[in-house]
Amino acid sequence: MTSTENFAILKDNSKTFYLASSFLPAAIRYKVLNVYAFCRKYDDSADSDIKINNPDVDKIIEDLKISEQIIKQLKIGIDSDRNFQRLKTLDDLIIYSYRVAGCVGLMMCELLDIDNDNDKYFAIDLGIAMQITNICRDVFEDKAMNRIYLPEDMIDDVNIKNKTDEDKLFEKIEALIKISENYYGSAIKGINKIPFGSRFSILVSLRLYQAIGKKILRNRKKYFHKKIHTTKFEKFLILMKCIGEFILNHIQNKKDTIHNADLHIALKKLPFTNG
Question: What are 78-92's pLDDT values in tens digits?
Answer without folding.
Answer: 999 888 899 999 999
